[in-house]
Structure formats: C-alpha cells, structure tokens
Amino acid sequence: MKQFYMLLCLIIICPIGCDKADSKGVIKLVTVEEFKELDALRDVQLLDIRTPEEYKSGYIEGYGNMDYLSDTFKEEMETLDKSKPIVIYCRSGGRSGRCATLMLEIGFKEIYDLEGGIIQWKAENNPVIVNSEN
After folding, report:
1. Catalytic member of 9, 14, 90, 99
2. Is there a catalytic annotation at residue 99?
C-alpha cells in the first residue's frame, strides 16, 4: 500500500515540477537567468513566437519572429533545424508551452521555453528592442 501512495504522488507531482521529455526529445522550462545563458550559446536557434505586432512593440535582442497564431506556422517551423537546440518565448508562457509541445511532436530534439515569457523578462528589468518601423 505504501508503494501505491508513493507512485500516486509521483504521478501527481511530476507533471507539475518536471520537464517534459520522451524518446523524441526534451522540453525544458527555464528561468530568465537560465534563458540569458542559453541565448549566448553558439548554434542555438532563437525564436519569438508572438504576433508581428507584439514583436514590434518590443523583443529580446537576437530573436527572430514566427507567429504561432498564423495559419502557416507549422510549415514555417519545418524550415528550422530540428537537430539544433531552440530557445522560444511568447508574451506570458502559454503559447510557447503549446508551441514547445508541437515542436517536440514534429521532431525537435531540444527545446527551451522561457517561463513567464517576455512579461517575466521585463519584470526582471531586462532590455527589449522596440521596432518603430511600420
């Protein structure tokens, strides 16, 4: 009976506090500090998945933009290198969480997702670039 309760605890707790991994790849939810270290790595893909309007209002330096909400998003993702690590963020973490799961399903091996999105990035007084072009 004790083993049953331990197993039950693992089933309940692990999805809350563990990264998502399977034989295909891994999704790691990262803090702002971990995120800063990742974008300094070589051969890592950096992607902001917000809408173009959100992107223009302020983005993290070095990050390209692909709109997760666009009809062509899945096709656009196919142009990326699935074997290289990818670091993603959105506004608050909801879209990037769904996007990370989709990326895992289509074959990305190593996905890093900024916990709290750009909202958390700004809350910790980190800079953003504003694109004033129309």
Report:
1. 90
2. no
